[in-house]
Amino acid sequence: MKKRFEFITDRNGFILPYVLFTTALVIIIVTASIQLYKNELQITERQTEQLKIETLFQMGRAQFIESLQDHNLPESPVTYHFPYGDVAIQYKILDTNEHHLYFTITTNRQSVISLPHQLAADPE
Which residues cross the membrane (predicted)? Predict the structure, then answer.
């Protein structure tokens, strides 16, 4: 007759593998949850920063259009200061039908983005 392992048949000795497995499983789940939370925080921060950049772009564009309509456009580049950051706009007036704008947007957290934009001479 084959001998059986005593730690399998003895109830007192078989609890340790269950405890080790359960502990390892809990540690893995907690660690994964912490990493997911950190990633969500980074994603939320970047989305908030992107929203600020888009808001600054729209505010700068609206301010530039208002300056065009008032016919008191200063020399290029034009810089506007807003609560979320600064917008610098370099522009070229090619002909009477369109303006080429080059935005440089800097947020309060020092994120900098540059993007071109075309604007019709009669913006509405």
Answer: 15-37
Q: How far is CA 81 from CA 13, 41, 96, 122, in A?
A: 72, 28, 28, 25
Cβ proximity of 84 and 60 under 8 Å: no
Please check whether residue 101 lies inside any domain of the structure. yes
Q: What is the DSSP string of 3-60?
A: PPPHHHH-TTTSHHHHHHHHHHHHHHHHHHHHHHHHHHHHHHHHHHHHHHHHHHHHHH
Domain that residue 14 falls in: 6-120
Half-sphere exposure of 99 (CA within 13 A, CB side): 17
Give, in order, the Cα–Cα distances in Å from 2 to each of 5, 81, 92. 10, 85, 93
Residues 80 and 87: beta-carbon distance below 8 Å = yes
The predicted-structure confidence for 76-123, as pLDDT tens digits, reads as follows 788 899 988 999 988 887 766 677 888 889 888 887 888 777 776 555
